[in-house]
Design brief:
Layout (H helix, E strand, L loop, with lengths): L3 E3 L3 H7 L4 E4 L2 E6 L4 E14 L3 E5 L3 E4 L4 E16 L2
Antiparallel strand pairs: 1-6, 2-7, 3-7, 4-5, 4-6, 4-7
């Protein structure tokens, strides 16, 4: 179960900007993904650590979290993202 972090293509940007947003101030918290989440990071800086991987992402990144992933979010700078749950 690996987290995918990359630059989005134009189609992904267009789709994601129509999705709801979520934001969070700087803090650390555990999270479990019951279903896949896709997100487009608008602001902030985050480090996410799972049993097998540690990734960092920030504004402009496209991130895919797999279903079943257990991780810890460390929001270093307040984050805002568009998100979509499900495949």
């Amino acid at each position: 179960m690996l987290i995918e972090v990359r630059m989005p293509n134009e189609e992904e940007i267009s789709f994601m900007t129509k999705q709801p947003t979520w934001s969070c101030d700087s803090k650390t918290f555990p999270w479990t993904y019951r279903e896949q989440e896709t997100c487009l990071i608008l602001e902030g800086e985050v480090n996410v650590k799972s049993e097998n991987q540690e990734v960092s992402f920030s504004a402009g990144d496209f991130v895919v979290f797999p279903a079943g992933l257990e991780c810890v979010w460390e929001v270093k700078e307040p984050v805002k993202k568009h998100y979509k749950f499900g495949g």
